Amino acid sequence: MRLAWKERKSALLLLGLCLGHLILISIQIPRGDAPTLFNRAVFAVFAPIQRAAQGLVRAVAGAGRSFRETRALRAENQTLKKELFFLNQENRFLRDALGAFRSEAVVRRNLDAYRGNLAVARVIGVDAGNPYKAVVINRGTLDGVRKDMPVCDKSGHLIGRTVEPVGLKESRVQLITDDESGVSVISEKDRLVGVLVGDAVRARCLLKYIMITAVGGTEGDLLLTTGFDKLYPAGIPVGRIVSVTPSPGLFKTVVVQPFFAFNELDEVAVLKLTALEW
Amino acid sequence: MAGRFRTQAEGAVATAAAVIVYTLLGRLHPSAVALVNAFSIAVVVIAFRRGEVAGALVGTACGLIQDSFTAGVFGLSGLTKTLLGFTTGYVARKIHLASFARLFVFLFLVGLLEWLAWVGFYLLIFGERVYARNGLLFFQPLATAAAGSLLIVVWRRIDRRRAS
Questions:
Q1: A134 interfaces chain B, CB cutoff of 8 Å
Q2: Residues A74-83: contacts with CB under 8 Å, at least 24 apart
Q3: Which residue blocks in chain A are alpha helix, DSSP H?
Q4: Which of A52, A133, A193, B86 would bridge with B56, disulfide CB 3.0–4.6 Å?
Q5: d(CA B66, CA B152)
Q6: Looking at beta carbons, which residues of chain A come within 8 Å of B16?
Q7: What's A27's DSSP letter?
Q8: Is 0.80 topped by the overall pTM?
């Protein structure tokens, strides 16, 4: 009798949990809704554990080094990284300006907006479902990071943008290879404008809405952000066209290989400016 | 009372350990999290040791944590891991799983069921293929079974040594 009641209690618990999960899943459909408060809470509680795990490993690995020396070097390294990132961006913008895409004054204005608005972050987690969809970084609202801020790799190539949930010291970054990501881009050589969407299953991107009659879009052509999407500032290198094939519909199939290498995504830079500020 | 506290402590430690292992594996290589699902391993080990109720609760916790680190639908892994925890705990009480080989086969089967449920729900909700990472994802139930049975055997030995 007691055993039967215990089993019934277990079954009821399972039923309750499953029902809870199903309700949780169904309130998020249609997809694209903002994360629920519960989702944010779980992220806020467990992201610091990820952060701590990363920190622990780094601490053990660097135990032999002098603390003062490491601290000084780290500060210097951070400054140099910011400087390098800025120089890379400047180089790209100036090259772009030479191509008569925009006036020197606009380029300068964009560059000035970046100054002092970079946060160097470390990748502390990857998406469990597909690593090419999102990563978690160790910078959050306390570091001035908010939703919809562009994120670049060490070389200044675009990797994505911050999305919700943004925690106090951690945030999630949607990669440009995510299927739900969209970036307005222009090809450097032919000035072909299109929307770059992700193809996470194949770890690549696709340039959409290029008419079959459009001239240009050659293999090897570099793609830069246009800024038209009001999400990413103009002139950030994104990737290179690897193939252009005609398709039965109205548009060409243009495959793009993003510049960032996932395995080298260790440190990234968050541009602490949203579309309204640059 | 002490038994309940011990169950809660084991569940909390296993969950925290899973988060740490998952983080480290992800940094080691992004594809490593496809092969070794630390959360599933934690769920099967706790369910095996502490029964279906603890298994279901740890499954819920681990699944939701995994979901919070994933840019997908929140609750998907929560649901499949709850089922995994409950099934493992319930069936493990009903059948004799003393030998390593039996344990391995059992954990492989429940791991495979969880994986199939996850892929099924993923297909149903997203309407797209699962990213298989060069086939590594297909070996996930095998890795879960190997690591899970190894941990259970080691834990059993520790318990036996403590008792003697």
A1: yes
A2: A78/A120, A81/A120, A81/A154, A81/A267, A81/A269, A82/A118, A82/A120, A82/A269
A3: 2-26, 37-61, 67-98, 104-114
A4: B86
A5: 22
A6: 49
A7: T
A8: no
Q: CA–CA separation, A1 vs B145, rounded Å?
A: 35
Using DSSP, state whether A166 is helix, strand or coil.
strand
Q: What is the CATH number of domain B2-163?
A: 1.10.1760
Confidence of residue B131 (pLDDT cuts 50, 70, 90): low
Contact at 8 Å (CB) between B66 and B39?
Answer: yes
CB A120, CB A81: distance < 8 Å: yes
Which of A269, A74, A19 is CA-nearest to residue B83?
A: A19
How many CA atoms, within 13 angstroms, populate the side-chain half-sphere of residue A168?
A: 6
Q: How long, in residues, is chain B?
A: 164
Q: Which residues of A touch B63 (CB under 8 A)?
A: 21
- Asked whether the beta carbons of A131 and A119 are under 8 A apart, the reply is no
CB pairs under 8 A between A and B: 136
Indicate the range of A108-117, A182-191, B89-98, B118-127 predicted with least confidence.
Answer: A108-117
User: What are A153's two structure tokens?
Assistant: 């790799």
Q: Does B99 touch chain A (CB under 8 A)?
A: no
Q: What is the pLDDT of residues A222-262, one digit of tens each?
A: 999 988 888 888 888 899 999 888 877 788 889 999 998 87
| Whether A200 contacts chain B with CB within 8 A | yes
Instruction: DSSP for B60-77, please give it.
Output: HHHHHHHHHTSSS-TTHH
User: What is the tens place of the pLDDT at every residue in B141-160?
Assistant: 899 899 999 999 998 888 88
Give the domain ranges of chain B.
2-163
- How many Cβ atoms from other residues are within 10 Å of residue A102's Cβ? 16
CB A133 within 8 A of CB A173: no
Tell me the C-alpha distance between A66 and A44, whole Å. 33
pLDDT tier for residue B88 given thresholds of 50, 70 and 90: very high
